[in-house]
Amino acid sequence: MSGAHPGRTGRRRLAALAALALAGAAAWALREVPAQFGRRPDASDPRVRASPQYRDGVFHNAPSEVAQGAPGRPDAGTLRRMLFEKEGRVPTAPVPLAVPEVPEASGGAPGGVAVTWFGHASALLELDGCRVLVDPIWSDRCSPSQLTGPKRLHPVPVELAELPQVDAVLISHDHYDHLDMATVRRLVRLQSAPFAVPLGIGGHLRRWGVPEHRIIELDWDETCTLGELSLTLTAAHHFSGRSLARNTTLWGSWVVAGPERKVFFTGDSGYFEGFARIGEQHGPFDAALMAIGAYDPAWADIHLNPEEAVRAHLELRGGLLLPIHWCTFNLAPHPWAEPVERLLAEAKAQGVALAVPRPGQRVEVANPPELDGWWEALS
Question: How far apart are CA 78 and CA 216, in angstroms?
């Protein structure tokens, strides 16, 4: 009998299919990874050139006596800790998710404020009948590639398609854990709301298919008005970049205001004098979403630690403190639950009211849930 052995033929076919799959994955990566980098803004853009934060071809932090300038690269010791000191940095059991109380298509805390935290810095804000989605990331990894990089420590608590229609999508800056290309592309199809972003980030959005009429770019202390909703980009002490090029786009925090209620959203920031100025100009707030995790002495000027978050919250006159930027991604060498444990101690010492929701939990600011220590069994 002539011809190849059946078993050998099958193995060859499997090998050929595997090769095709690898080639397809490589082709996808070659197309998608460069797109993840977005697009550098046009340096001749008059709005960019006119920004007080822009000089020498990049954006800069405001001068500060308590925070230094642009952060440096992590040194060898920091990288070693990130790579090899793993003890306690992930939860020991699945993170308990709340069954999301997705608000109805109309209404939504018309006379008050509600916040649904989805994990990390992603949240849905409801105030005065308006809805705002902040820093949404629904991907499994916060990375230019979904094959590598920091991976979620818990699933998203609700599918993106299940969210109600929102009035605006806010982005604080262009780092991968705050601006997610795949999520943006899906929101273009699922939502009709505009994207309000710091200067320069519009270039990323345009490359990813966001229509021009849905892009609002702001400098610090600029406000856009959408019906009864006012969105003001305020200062932050941080940096930007999706590739080796840094600070070609601006970063910031947000003041979200309706006719009666206000919410503050830190995005990412180190501690600096700007929090007191924001509190004087825009406070008091009904609630403040304060970043508390991913801190380290090596980058102390760009991420708040828990004690600094409480101090900033007091200067903002922040109302109810809702911690964000912890729990979802392993981005620093500190233990997984340390941010919230340190936050609780400092908030108690300073008399600050706070709520610590599970991912997916909706918090009515006027009636926050009692602290139940849900994270304690996981650390």
Answer: 37
